Amino acid sequence: VVKDDRQGTMVKGVSFEVRAGEVIGIAGVQGNGQTELVEALTGLRSVESGSITIAGHQATNASPRQVTEMGVAHVPEDRQRDGLVLAYPLTDNVVLNTYYQKPFAHGLMVDEAAVRAQTEKLIKEFDVRTPSSTVPAATLSGGNQQKVIVAREFSRPIKLLIASQPTRGLDVGSIEYIHGRIIEKRDQGTAVLVVSTELDEIRALSDRIAVMYEGKIVDILPADQVTKEQLGLLMAGARPADLPTGKPPAETTPEEIELDAEVM
Questions:
Q1: Are the C-beta atoms of residues 213 and 189 closer than 8 Å to each other?
Q2: How far apart are CA 115 and CA 228, in angstroms?
Q3: Considering the entire predicted model, what is its pTM?
Q4: Choice between 179 and 255, residue whose per-residue pLDDT is larger
Q5: In what order do the strands lie in the sheet with 23-27?
Q6: Residue 129: which residues within 8 A CB-CB, separation 6 or more?
Q7: How far apart are alpha carbons 131 and 152 in whole angstroms?
Q8: How many CB atoms lie within 10 A of CB 242?
Q9: Distances (CA, A) of 18 to 3, 54, 104, 134
Q10: Is the separation of the CB atoms in 111 and 186 below 8 Å?
Q11: Model confidence pLDDT, tens digit, residues 102-113
Q12: Which is nearest to 202 in space by CA: 173, 164, 250?
């Protein structure tokens, strides 16, 4: 169980696994508990009851730093509020969650040269359009701000990627780029959880799709066995038994299971 800021229950009875090398997409109309679920998984909101397990490690009510150190990367729903410090230069934003670790930290001191070198490397690798590595994050376009977040989160070893509304407000080119990077992580064996209100995005990225309605997961379906119409009906509150039937292709199953996450 996860509650919102007004103590209303927003997530209840949710249980699912995220497998290594697959993408699970969570589809749903905004306001059905997706935001609170992601916040619970990433240590930003407390879990009233139930448990979260990451790669065999207990992560229930862990802090954001502890979750990060377990190998979780988070691309947040609101990039400007939760993903960046807009007044800070790119050099600071690139190491927001690793500044205290080597090679960036030496005792209590931050190695500015190492931070600058990492920032320059990621700007080039992730094609961030910026005049320099020292400009404030606020000066970048939305697409380039998102690239900075993706660069930061993808540039360290991770086991689970949680991407919430990863392409909201972006242009077509930036959307394709972000999608490509997410699929690349999946193909490298990372477990990926994508949360989006865009059905086309969910269907394009996911191996399995979980539909949330009124704080519950009403069904989890192989992406290649569900139609856009069926997803829309589930998002509107239809019961799985009431869905129109089709002729889906055979299901494919990922080979490895290395990570699971559960919230009750």
A1: no
A2: 44
A3: 0.89
A4: 179
A5: 72-75, 160-164, 191-196, 23-27, 208-213, 216-222
A6: 140, 141, 144
A7: 18
A8: 8
A9: 22, 9, 31, 37
A10: no
A11: 999 988 899 999
A12: 164
Token pair 């972000």 is found at: 178
DSSP 82: I
The tokens for 11 are 């997530």
Give the DSSP letter of residue 136: B
Torsion sign (Cα): 257, 46, 15, 82? negative
Inform me whether the pLDDT recorded for 259 exceeds 50. no
Compute the distance between CA of residue 248 and CA of residue 223 in angstroms, rounded to an integer.
10
Backbone φ, ψ for residue 11 (5° rounding): -130, 130
d(CA 59, CA 171): 35
- Determine whether 57 is exposed, middle or buried from the number of CB atoms within 10 Å of its CB (0-12, 13-18, 19+): middle
Helix spans in the chain (H): 34-41, 64-69, 90-94, 112-125, 142-154, 172-187, 199-205, 228-235
State the Rg of the chain over Cα.
Answer: 19
For residue 12, the number of C-alpha atoms closer than 13 Å in the C-beta half-sphere is 10
